[in-house]
Amino acid sequence: MHELNKQTSTILAIGECMLELIPDTEDSLKMSFAGDVYNALVYGKRCFPDTNCAFFTGTGNDAISQKMVQRWQREGINTEFVQYSDQHSLGIYSISVDEAGERSFSYWRKDSAATKLMEFLTLEQYSDLLTNVDLVFFSGISLGILSIENRDKLLALVAKMRAQGKVIAFDPNYRPSMYESDQDASEWMTKAYQVSDIALPGLDEHQDIFNHTHVKQVAAFCLEHGVKEVVIKAGDAGTYVYEQENPPVHVPFTPAPKQIDSTAAGDSFAGAYLVSRLNNLSINNALLNANIVAGEVVQHQGGILTQTTFNQTLSNKIIK
Q: Of the residues 36, 134, 197, 267, which is catalytic?
């Protein structure tokens, strides 16, 4: 990744954030806000508070949508690129936990404002709006929530931004229900890799989508499609980073002392890694930061640690 000499660098996350409903008491639910690229953005901002972490999404003008935007702002997220709709609101999902402790999810996101993101302005208007950005991050969920036409528009926008010299990062974050089939998913993921500089695939999801069974297959596939830095999450085998020229980097898996909740483990990893790289850290140090953050996140309930917990457990461990 090329070195940035600007005093403040900007990462732009493209995707959704939803209203999260979690069981509280037998007859009530607790409200929060979450989404994969949003979670990543929060952890990136927590690790490097001086980085400009901006969110490009759609939401409503209703009271709950506004409450969500205020939450983003309290996290220090730049909301100047958020698009607002009078006709569409935020998406919602709920988490249910059965007697064995297994979680299941229900979603109500069809026609949410975030799914209409590419319809607010033209491609040229978006390109002009998003000029002062250094790194763009989107995911398979960012694509999956969109219509076919809007997926093509998003990829065209990302390709245009890449041609302007911005670094593009993509995390497949594969959700089978968002695609017609594994074959359909493979076609969209391939298109996304073709416009990306950094990819963060998981070995498991590549087994499902592409029938890849080894990290070298994943790396070769991504590199062949133009990715420059392939960060492969391989579970108990650790994390690997492959580049075109340099030898691969491997960081072994270190299990957390306890695992309470894996929600946002991958999101926090992505956010810490990308913002570390944006701040000119080496691949090794970026991986160390990402693993430290993800390893702490899984030890707590919920996707986003409180600021107090983050400060107490992680602030002094982040490599700057």
A: 267
Is 152 an active-site residue? no
The 10s digit of each residue's pLDDT in 148-161 is 999 999 999 999 99
Under 8 Å between Cβ of 233 and 269: yes
Q: How far apart are CA 29 and CA 36, in angstroms?
A: 21
pLDDT tens readout for residues 4-37:
545 689 999 999 999 999 888 888 999 999 999 9
CATH topology of domain 10-16+41-58+117-313: UDP-N-acetylmuramoyl-L-alanine:D-glutamate ligase (3.40.1190)
d(C-alpha 162, C-alpha 33), whole Å = 30
Over the stretch 96-135, which tens digit does the pLDDT of each residue have?
867 765 678 899 999 999 999 999 999 999 999 999 999 9
